[in-house]
Design brief:
The protein is α+β, with helices and mostly antiparallel strands. It contains eleven helices and ten strands. A five-stranded mixed beta sheet has the order 1-3-8-5-6, with no helix packed on it. Strands 2-9-4-7-10 form a five-stranded antiparallel beta sheet. The chain is elongated and about 75 Å long.
Amino acid sequence: MPIENIPEIYFQKKDTPRDIFVYDFKMTSDVVKSKVNLSMNMFSFLQVGKKQVHFANTSMAVNSKQSLLLKKGNWLWTELLDTEAIYFCKLFFFSEKKLTEFLSKYTNDAKPYKEEVPYFVIENDDYIASFINSLSSDTFLNHSYSEALLVLKFEEIMLYLLNKYGNEFEYYLHSLISKEVSPFKNIVESNVHSNLKLEEIAFLCNMSLSTFKRHFTSEYNEAPGKWLQEKRLQKAKELLQAGELKASDIYLDIGYNNLSNFSIAFKNKFGISPTDL
């Protein structure tokens, strides 16, 4: 069964990455299962139907009386569990950047959950039902002030839920923020001096290549190809200066397919040929 990278599969080719994104999701099959890689935190506002979400160590069933806030980075299975012929929900995605800005603006330095909980269950009420009805991907795509409006909608639901659930929800929001050294950074930095390609490192991070590039740029403020080349060429220089290895001994280990490409890149970086060290 193929893996669906969400929300990337909902973007048009011409779309640029967004910090807040709404998608109207609809199915008409009786039972649908999908394997999902979630790259942004997401509200799932279920309107019609039922579903069960399976995580690594637990599962959660919800119906139209409940909504879920799902933590990014989880692989999960979803099932449509209903005798009705339709399943409809609103998906509301938000980046860690927007979450951090919101927490800095409205909350204290709360301690996150000690438990690694991949979801937060929201009991729907009249206010939340009204909020869900106000979300429409068509509206935000065609609105002149769509980005500003989406930020307001994001802050609206966050403030309402903070008021409704208090510290419990605030602590959960803080737990969504990456730790000082994220698993993503651990994977990247443990493969800096390997010969793995970007696609292979992205796979180890459980991300599509496009998601990996966007996340990398957000973490390191530089494109991954350029960043890795700089690190690997610097390592190559150190190895060559030690005097025990030649360029022909190391070019494959630091990600180059042939000696010529390595030599050109090395000279462009340091101004001398690797054979001159």
